[in-house]
Design goal:
Number of strands of chain B: 25
Distance between the termini of chain A: 46 Å
Oligomer: heterodimer
Number of domains of chain A: 3
Strand order of the largest sheet of chain A: 2-3
Strand order of the largest sheet of chain B: 9-17-16-11-14-13
Largest sheet of chain B: 6 strands, mixed
Structural class of chain A: mainly alpha
Largest sheet of chain A: 2 strands, antiparallel
Chain lengths: 287, 622
């Protein structure tokens, strides 16, 4: 049986990363998400992935989670490497394997030939680092933050409360729906059916609709949406170190993004100023 | 002052203002004028688009007018009779309406009545017309006689070829006789009119290395009233190829430069940017300029140094090669009708003793086989007439092919996501108050079901399928990614036919995906935002979110088509976002195949969703 708790937040709060304000984690993740799309330097991308992995180890996550992170990274990298090995469109490119020869009937003329390119493998690996870094950091944030606190953080970052409630409901119902899905599939198989078909959805969704009525009565009886102002048992407050960390990271990323954006503006012929040449050079070589 | 006079003054003022604003403004065009036997050459410092040149004297009297075709020029020949020691004004009308004037004084003395030029090896521009050539090589000696006088003249030409040189073939019209080891080639001709030319070209074979041979040409002239002589000579030195080549080296290679070899300070050294005209460039007013395969795309400057004491004629070739194979790159192949179909650019340059010369080589871009990336610009030099390469230098050049389409689409996605997020934050509870608590729970549970049945299998299966099925994995993953997803979306629209319900479900799914799989990436946020906007629009237009309706075959088909089109748009946009933000490459055929398969999967999903939603509405709702 699937142990859902193993896969989500562990609840251990022994390390500093768990104690960080969820807003700090969310904002840093969003900032990193923006930062990472401006980066081209593979060493910086690798460094970000290393930071994520270091965080995973520093957070003392369970072995299963560490294995999941490594598997996700490996599969993600493989996906990027595979696609880019086939579709790499830069020079030089050296074909090391022919997947579809241009002479192959139908597919040959359609694709113009499909090859595995040596340089594409390297490019895929580099670009895969970008996705791997983001996924690792995302998983780190999820696994080191209670979903209740994560939602509270989002609400404090102006996510509408009703939406936050919907997200909490959805999260809470994942294990139940998973269980139900497996039961419906088992029942279907007992009757000689397939593992999964569209008919599987009908009882699951029917149950959801019936459950919705009960749940709505339950939450409304506890004054859900009864008042304009909503109070919380826990309040989130940034401490000085968190403020410093967030401000410092924001400044660093802003400087890098401005440098790269100005370089891209120059490259696209949108804006050029000779005084910015050192900045262009820095962005080109370092970022 | 009467009203009529005021009116007249106003008209004069307006006319003067109009003349000042619209009239030909004189521009600062730099250049000089060289007087020659056929007129004058205007040499401009920078190429200009000149449409007309009028030449006048000091008193303003006109001398010549030249009307020029479109295009930019740096050298403009003007055919005119000039008088010695007089000042001339060259008024140039520029294509943009402006004008420029260059003033020049003609030489104090007229040219020789008949001029004689001897150039050997032909192509060298040394003062004595001589140069060094490889031993046993064939060279050309060029003799040019020009009549600069108005009256006819009888000319007798004698070319003395010394023992160190061998004449390969005696030209027609010249008589050969040997005298003291020297071969004398004699010819006679009447030059009747002004500017009449007499040109003879001799094919000579150089002797052994170390010999110096002085080729002489003498002219005896008679115009009926007087006799006079003219003479010219060229010293041809012979050396081994190794001796010449050892002193020739490529000092520098620079690309890109402009047509006259200047480096654009704005351009990045070694980076060539190919930017076809685009909407974004037009919006920003950036000048990209359309490219034609027939026109040079950029230029490279090759500087050759000569450390020897003799002038050398070298052939400079610029080949852009594939760094992996070393073969000429198809992207940069010179059009077949240019440069003798060799596929690369070349030029001949005379490099003076202890000096250097720069050669500007055009680079062509074959747009049909354009492939961005890194290439090698290989400059090679050879002595003119000898195929052996003397010196070579490689310079890495990067070709950046800028396509604005993925960027524009990604920006559009970002704009939609920003507007959507802003609207959600601004309207907040007001937007959600339209839904009852039960409806919110229904939406969130549909979000959960979508996550469990679509996102979870998709996340795990997508990459595994990639391993197994390679580029055709989308045929397998489309069942979860599109069929099940759209079946759930359409069934939710059937259960809750209200605008906004689908968006809320997508937001819930996005939050879950972020919470469980850590997928809080910009690409995914953009992707979800686009899906929400497109689906809401399409479902509203088809009436699916405008209240309960009966599911007929036509309605099902319409919904299937609408959802299919939404998937086409969003899938295409997602590819563009991945290409822009993650620098990934996808072949056009692949994108097309994914979209086509996605359309089929989605349309099937939407049709199933209609049936599923109808059953749910009948059996599971109040």
């Amino acid at each position: 049986m699937l142990n859902w708790q193993e896969f989500t937040y562990s609840g251990a709060e022994a390390t500093a990363i768990f104690r960080l304000d969820p807003r700090v984690k969310i904002l840093m993740l969003v900032i990193t998400g923006l930062f990472i799309i401006f980066l081209d330097n593979p060493w910086l991308l690798a460094a970000l992935l290393a930071v994520g992995l270091a965080g995973v180890f520093a957070a003392r996550l369970t072995l299963l989670k560490v294995k999941i992170v490594l598997a996700v990274i490996a599969i993600g990298l493989w996906g990027a490497v595979f696609s880019q090995a086939l579709f790499y469109e830069q020079m030089p490119r050296t074909a090391v394997l022919t997947v579809i020869s241009p002479q192959t009937p139908l597919l040959g003329p359609l694709t113009g030939g499909l090859y595995v390119y040596q340089e594409g493998i390297v490019h895929g690996l580099r670009q895969g680092l970008r996705m791997a870094a983001m996924t690792t950091l995302g998983l780190l944030v999820c696994w080191t933050t209670d979903s209740r606190l994560l939602l509270l953080g989002l609400v404090r970052l102006r996510l509408p409360y009703s939406l936050a409630f919907m997200a909490v409901t959805a999260v809470r119902f994942i294990p139940i729906l998973l269980q139900e899905t497996l039961q419906v599939i088992a029942a279907s198989r007992l009757r000689g059916g397939r593992r999964f078909s569209m008919q599987t959805l009908l009882p699951i969704l029917g149950n959801c609709l019936r459950r919705a009525g009960t749940l709505a009565v339950a939450v409304e009886s506890r004054a859900f949406r009864a008042f304009g102002e909503r109070t919380y048992l826990e309040e989130l407050r940034f401490n000085a170190a968190e403020k410093l960390l967030l401000a410092g990271y924001l400044l660093l990323v802003a400087a890098a993004v401005v440098s790269k954006a100005s370089y891209l503006g120059y490259q696209y012929g949108l804006f050029y100023h000779s005084a910015l040449r050192p900045l262009y050079e820095f962005a080109r070589t370092c970022l | 002052m009467g009203r009529g006079k005021w009116l007249l003054l106003l008209i004069i003022f307006i006319a003067a203002g109009g003349w000042f604003i619209l009239g030909g403004e004189e521009q600062g065009v730099e250049g000089n004028v060289r007087f020659g036997r056929q007129g004058a050459d205007i040499c401009l410092a920078e190429p200009q688009a000149v449409s007309r040149v009028a030449v006048s004297g000091e008193g303003g009297q006109p001398f010549a007018v030249a009307v020029l075709g479109p295009g930019v020029r740096q050298k403009i020949p003007i055919f005119m009779n000039w008088e010695p020691g007089r000042k001339y004004y060259f008024t140039m009308t520029l294509a943009d309406g402006g004008s420029a004037v260059l003033a020049a004084q003609s030489p104090d003395e007229r040219l020789d009545r008949v001029s004689l030029k001897l150039r050997a090896p032909y192509g060298l521009s040394g003062k004595d017309g001589g140069g060094v050539v490889p031993e046993d090589s064939v060279l050309t000696a060029d003799v040019l006689v020009t009549n600069n006088a108005e009256q006819p003249v009888e000319a007798t030409l004698v070319i003395a070829v010394p023992a160190g040189l061998e004449v390969v073939a005696v030209p027609d019209g010249l008589r050969a006789e040997r005298s003291d080891g020297t071969l004398l080639l004699t010819g006679r001709r009447r030059l009747s009119a002004r500017n009449e030319l007499w040109n003879e070209q001799l094919q000579l074979r150089a002797g052994k290395a170390g010999t110096n041979a002085v080729l002489q040409a003498s002219l005896v002239l008679d115009d009926g009233r007087s006799h006079w002589r003219q003479a010219s000579q060229a010293t041809i030195q012979t050396a081994t190829t190794a001796a010449i080549g050892g002193k020739i080296r490529i000092a520098a290679v620079e690309a890109p430069v402009d047509s006259i070899g200047r480096v654009d300070p704005k351009a990045q050294s070694g980076v060539l940017v190919y930017a076809p005209p685009s909407l974004l460039s037009n919006i920003w007013g950036a000048q990209t300029g359309g490219r034609l395969d027939d026109e040079p795309f950029a230029y490279a400057r090759v500087t050759i140094s000569n450390d020897g004491d003799e002038q050398v004629l070298v052939l400079v070739a610029g080949k852009v090669v594939d760094p992996a194979t070393g073969e000429l790159a198809a992207t940069y192949r010179v059009p077949p009708h240019k440069n003798d179909g060799k596929g690369y650019s070349y030029d001949v340059a005379a490099v003076g003793p202890r000096g250097s010369t720069s050669v500007i080589l055009p680079l062509y871009l074959n747009e049909n086989s354009l492939l961005a990336g890194n290439y090698v610009f290989r400059a090679e030099t050879a002595i003119f007439g000898v195929s052996q390469v003397l010196a070579g230098a490689d310079r890495q050049v990067q070709l950046v092919a800028r396509s604005d389409r993925p960027l524009l689409i990604t920006l559009l996605m970002a704009l939609i996501a920003l507007v959507g997020t802003g609207w959600l934050m601004w309207r907040q509870e007001a937007a959600l108050a339209r839904f009852s608590t039960k409806e919110l729970v229904i939406i969130s549970l549909f979000g959960t079901v979508t996550f469990v049945t679509v996102n979870m299998p998709q996340t795990i299966l997508w990459d595994i399928a990639h391993v197994v099925f390679g580029p055709f994995s989308f045929l397998f993953t489309g069942f979860f990614g599109q069929t099940v997803l759209y079946a759930l979306i359409v069934s939710l629209a059937a259960v809750l036919p209200r605008p906004g319900a689908i968006t809320l479900m997508i937001v819930v799914r996005m939050i879950l995906n972020g919470f469980i799989f850590g997928h809080f990436t910009p690409v995914q946020i953009l992707s979800y935002a686009m899906l929400a906007v497109c689906l809401e629009g399409a479902l509203y237009l088809t009436g699916a979110t405008r209240g309960p309706r009966k599911d007929g075959l036509g309605r099902v088909a319409l919904l299937a088509l609408a959802c299919g089109l939404v998937d086409v748009v969003t899938t295409y946009m997602n590819f563009m976002a991945y290409m822009t933000l993650y620098r990934l490459y996808y072949a056009d055929w692949y994108i097309g195949a994914v979209i086509a398969a996605g359309f089929v999967y989605t349309a099937a999903g939407a049709a199933i969703g209609c049936r599923l939603g109808g059953t749910l509405r009948r059996t599971a709702t109040d």
